[in-house]
Write a structure and sequence with these properties.
Blueprint lengths: L2 H10 L7 H6 L3 H4 L3 H8 L3 H7 L3 H12 L4 H15 L4 H6 L5 H19 L10
Length: 131
């Protein structure tokens, strides 16, 4: 199962609610050497823009994954830039203001964007050794 498929599975789960941060972080548990229970707890209060409309939880979860995987600031900054270029904002409040349809579908798409971007940034660059 790909990271994106795992995020889709989490967001579709009717038995348990996974906030945007949790759904963006959980697909990366294996690479980050993080058990799912700890990841759920770590990301619990970062949904809804840290519970006050600030930085999108999907972005926060993806940044957590990058940090735990040991990537440098350059890749974290690239994630922020790519996400903002594609979605027009980084904050939950601004992203929701741009929504013209179903809130869940809108937020799901942000999770999927963040997971896909983090997945790409975790790929070794040409000439880079992956140890």
């Amino acid at each position: 199962m790909t990271k994106l498929e795992r995020a889709e599975q989490l967001r579709a789960d009717k038995a348990q609610h996974y906030n945007c941060c949790q759904a963006a972080l959980l697909p990366f548990c294996e690479e980050c050497q993080l058990d799912e229970e700890t990841a759920l707890k770590l990301a619990a209060n970062f949904g809804s823009g840290m519970r006050h409309g600030s930085t999108c939880g999907a972005v926060t979860g993806a940044l957590m994954a990058l940090g735990l995987a040991g990537v440098d600031e350059k890749k974290a900054t690239a994630l922020l830039r790519k996400f903002k270029e594609k979605n027009g904002a980084l904050t939950c409040r601004e992203l929701l203001a741009k929504n013209t349809g179903d809130k869940k579908a809108h937020c799901d798409s942000k999770v999927f964007d963040a997971v896909q971007m983090a997945t790409e940034l975790l790929q070794p660059e040409e000439g880079e050794n992956k140890e």
